[in-house]
């Protein structure tokens, strides 16, 4: 705040702002909402400014690779931002940033002037193609988590990270991946990460690209088996290395349930509701009526971190309402209610 710009060192927050704006616009009316004041500018002007800044490059080194349309993110700029020690640096092209960027481009194509619509559409289609060609690993059947590289390196020359993480789910829920077969494989792969009411941040399996976690020169983990199943012990040597490398999170778990229905169609809504219903256990066993921040990846999945986490609860509520709405529409009810339009795939079920 004020003269401190440290809180701006994030690549995903501006892109999540697009998601929030599109949700609000859907309920308040597209034309009216984007013309509302957001400080000294309208929401439309702010969003267009963010899009142009990413294309041209921001002062804190976030920039679009013109060759692939993908967005480069400096180390520790995503939600996996633990940096003491550097447990999940992910410098390069993280998959969720590309999914969020695709969604942002969809909004920009809708709200920008007619002469700029074609520009955003071309980038959007390029991003989708790049995700399917550079991130999808046919042999493993899921999207790579990140293409690692230094600033200025094009995505095609970046080092692929084959670790199985839940970030790829946003490529499904935000419509960045259109191929239904790939969507199904992504969701099926992420089943490996599920625990009751949460989803693990890293699979318990070997990786080809080593993940080394050091603390003052001391290697804390096995780089080729980096899964860390318990969020316990000293903060820097135990909890932070585990934070995004096996710890299960509640806020992404509802997106798995959402992606399940997008991949398998409305016939799978009862299954998705059953998945989501496992969150009730957390609300009954922990802080009454609330959702915790994290759980141990290992059984018995002890609740950890914040006892009542807002983003976990809000995502649970959002997807629960969305699933019920999909269920009504499947029965031919609720046609006059607002429909989710973020992903075009959701309208094809």
Kindly describe this structure.
- With 349 residues, the protein is of the alpha+beta class.
- It contains 12 helices and 16 strands.
- Strand 10 (194-195) and strand 11 (198-200) form a beta hairpin.
- The relative contact order is 0.10.
How is the topology of this model organized?
Blueprint (H helix, E strand, L loop, with lengths): L12 H16 L1 H5 L2 E2 L2 E2 H14 L6 E2 L6 E2 L19 E3 H17 L2 H22 E2 L4 E2 L2 E3 L10 E3 L7 H5 L6 H11 L3 E2 L2 E3 L13 E2 L2 E2 L15 H9 L4 E2 L3 H12 L4 H9 L1 H7 L8 E2 L7 E2 L5 H21 L19
Antiparallel strand pairs: 1-2, 3-4, 5-8, 6-7, 8-9, 10-11, 11-14, 12-13, 14-15, 15-16
Helix pairs in contact: 1-4, 3-4, 4-5, 7-9, 9-10, 9-12, 10-12
Give a short overview:
The protein is α+β, with helices and mostly antiparallel strands. It is 42% helix and 10% strand. Strands 10-11-14-15-16 form a five-stranded antiparallel beta sheet, with helices on one face. The chain has a three-stranded antiparallel beta sheet with strand order 5-8-9. Strands 1-2 form a two-stranded antiparallel ribbon.
Count all strands and give the number: 16
| Percent strand | 5-15%
Helical segment count: 12
Sequence of secondary-structure elements: HHEEHEEEHHEEEEHHEEEEHEHHHEEH
Radius of gyration using CA atoms only: 20 Å
The average pLDDT score comes to 92
Overall helicity: 40-55%
Main sheet: which strands, in order across? 10-11-14-15-16
Instruction: Specify the biggest β-sheet.
Output: 5 strands, antiparallel
Low-confidence stretches: 337-349
Distance between the termini: 44 Å
Report the structural category.
Answer: alpha+beta
Instruction: Assign an overall shape.
Output: globular
